[in-house]
Amino acid sequence: MSLVLALPFLIQGVAHFIDEFYFHRGREPLPSWELWSHPVDTLGVLITYSVCLFAPMQTFWLVVFGVLFLFSCFSITKDEWVHQQHCSAGEQWLHSVLFVIHPIVLFLAGLYGLSRFRTALGYEFLQAFEQTFWVLQFFAFATLLVFFIQIVKGGLAWRAKLTQLSTQS
Question: How many independent structural domains does the chain possess?
Fold first, then answer.
């Protein structure tokens, strides 16, 4: 059961890894809009995961989760009209896979979050999520690492651009 629950996270992780470390490397240097845009998307996912991991079971936090869920799902699509000019067909297809799997992963993250309160809620179907809570913890940590990599990569690219501009002056 844990593999079934982890599978969407694994698919998203592998697809994201291929996008970041295969397709992006083939298009370096990345345009500046992409250097700031991707960390914004990743931060949206991290905040959503954080609500699932740490927020108390209250109506307010369920609404916050719903707003973050929608924001994240729309945020990841914001660059696609620009991507069609910069990306290969393979990268665009991979993005479509990520668009399909993203809401599934966030929905499962929400169920993981609810599983922390399974006994109080009386929802027995959440038992499998409660028993595999490590899946959300692992992928939240992995997402945090990706966020830091994106920030460092973007910072280095900006530094290189500034250095190049200063040497041209």
Answer: 1
Would you say 17 and 145 are in contact if contact means Cβ atoms under 8 Å apart?
A: no
Separation CA 55–CA 104 (nearest Å) = 20
pLDDT of residue 106: 97
Helical segments of the chain, H only: 2-18, 24-26, 32-54, 59-75, 80-86, 89-115, 118-121, 127-131, 134-168
The label of the residue with tokens 């280095």 reads 156
Structure tokens at 68: 């973050």
Range of the domain at 9: 2-168
What's the pLDDT score for residue 40? Answer: 93
Alpha-carbon distances, residue 101 vs 8, 56, 70, 86, 94 (angstroms): 7, 26, 14, 23, 11
pLDDT tens, 80-112? 888 788 889 999 999 999 999 999 999 999 999
